[in-house]
């Protein structure tokens, strides 16, 4: 009997939903199922889901569209794509996103259970890595750094302040800015930053997709501090660095 993880099945075919549900419930999982991408996202917003088995081709939102939104709504949910032979190329393309495995229809009970077990093990490893990284950061006293132009960065409070202007950052934005500012001139790869900020390792192809939206949001927020924003420099095809203070 398996650990009772929470699994969501998303498929527009009733027979496929029922078959997957019965196989997984018999192995001890909690299982919910929905018929389309919109319902899947509604479920993710209001329920804890450890792993989602997601049909690639459905009316309305495609599986890929669901993956993109799920990445924001429920970033710790592991995703397994369900696909037919005719959409293999699209399934492989989906591996560029936060998808690490797929099942070919029709899948045997053994294939289904093996894939789910691998996905849950992967999720647990990521969460453990993330917990360790966050614990290491929290065990250190968060510094206050004052830049050459007088801008004050309080990483304990996740605030940026200059004159009468004050800006609050999210935890991920604060960790990103702290890593860069504490290492002026050092180029961090996308993969390095994902590990340091999100707490888990990822592929070279996947890392930029995870990091770029975060960097973009941080730069937009820092627009009120233009001198600070411009010092977060992109290195094409590699990553980012923080431009040192001028001597």
What is the strand and helix layout of this fold?
Blueprint: E1 6-10, H1 14-26, E2 30-34, H2 37-46, E3 51-55, H3 63-73, E4 78-83, H4 88-94, E5 101-104, H5 109-138, E6 144-146, E7 152-154, E8 159-162, E9 165-168, H6 171-181, E10 188-189, H7 190-198, H8 206-221, H9 226-230, E11 232-235, E12 239-242
Parallel strand pairs: 1-2, 1-3, 3-4, 4-5
Antiparallel strand pairs: 6-7, 7-8, 8-9, 10-12, 11-12
Helix pairs in contact: 2-3, 6-7, 6-8, 7-8
Question: Descriptors for this entry?
Answer:
247 residues; alpha/beta; Rossmann fold; Arc Repressor Mutant, subunit A; 2 domains; 5-stranded parallel beta sheet; 4-stranded antiparallel beta sheet; 9 helices
Distance from first to last alpha carbon = 64 Å
Please state the overall shape, judged from the principal axes of the Cα atoms. elongated
What structural class do you assign from the helix and strand content? Answer: alpha/beta
Continuous helix count? 9
CATH class of the largest domain equals Alpha Beta
Q: Which strand order does the major sheet show?
A: 2-1-3-4-5
Q: Which range does the strand content fall in?
A: 15-25%
């Amino acid at each position: 009997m398996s650990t009772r993880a929470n699994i969501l099945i998303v498929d527009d075919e009733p027979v496929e939903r029922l078959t997957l549900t019965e196989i997984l419930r018999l192995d001890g999982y909690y299982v919910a199922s929905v018929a389309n991408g919109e319902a899947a996202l509604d479920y993710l917003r209001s329920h804890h889901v450890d792993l989602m088995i997601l049909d690639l081709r459905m009316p309305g939102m495609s599986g890929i569209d669901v993956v993109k939104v799920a990445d924001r709504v429920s970033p710790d949910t592991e995703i397994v794509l369900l696909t037919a032979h005719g959409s293999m190329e699209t399934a492989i393309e989906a591996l560029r996103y936060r998808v690490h495995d797929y099942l070919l229809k029709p899948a045997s009970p053994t294939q289904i259970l093996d894939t789910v077990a691998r996905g849950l093990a992967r999720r647990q490893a990521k969460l453990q890595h993330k917990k360790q990284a966050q614990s290491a950061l929290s065990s250190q006293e968060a510094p206050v750094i004052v830049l050459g132009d007088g801008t004050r960065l309080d990483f304990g409070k996740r605030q940026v302040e200059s004159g009468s202007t004050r800006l609050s950052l999210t935890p991920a934005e604060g960790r990103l800015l702290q890593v860069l500012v504490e290492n002026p001139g050092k180029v961090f790869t996308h993969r390095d930053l994902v590990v340091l900020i999100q707490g888990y390792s990822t592929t070279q192809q996947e890392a930029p997709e995870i990091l770029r939206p975060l960097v973009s949001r941080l730069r937009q927020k820092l627009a009120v501090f233009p001198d600070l924003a411009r010092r977060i420099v992109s290195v094409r095809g590699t990553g980012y660095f923080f431009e040192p203070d001028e001597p």
